[in-house]
Amino acid sequence: TTRIGSGDPNLWADILLANRQGVLAALEGFSHTLDELTRALTREDAEAVRDFLARARNRRENELGHTNRTR
């Protein structure tokens, strides 16, 4: 986001529009994920928040190719 924010708006508009299907799919997934966390926080559901954070950590570790699940 900082790279996009510091870049040429015309260039990034062209890039986003040229890739709009993929960008929209990613935004939809991101929106769903944020909604899940919003609901957990609104309900003050500590277990759901912990589960959300654990899944986020696991996904990040898997994408980066390393694990550290002893924390």
Please write out the topology.
Layout: H1 2-5, H2 9-18, H3 20-42, H4 46-64
Feature tags:
single chain; 71 residues; mainly alpha; 4 helices
How would you characterize this protein structure?
With 71 residues, the protein is an all-alpha fold. Helices cover 79% and strands 0% of the residues. It is built from four helices and no strands. It has helices at 2-5, 9-18, 20-42, 46-64. Helix 3 (20-42) packs antiparallel against helix 4 (46-64). The two termini are 29 Å apart.
- Note poorly predicted spans: none
Query: Helices and strands, in N-to-C order?
Result: HHHH
Q: What about the largest sheet?
A: none
Structural class: mainly alpha
* Count of DSSP strands: 0
Distance between the termini: 29 Å
Shape: elongated
- Strand % is under 5%
Give the averaged pLDDT, no decimals: 91
Number of helices: 4
Give the fraction of residues assigned to helices: over 70%
Using only C-alpha atoms, the radius of gyration works out to 16 Å
Question: Quick recap of the structure?
Answer:
With 71 residues, this protein is mainly α.
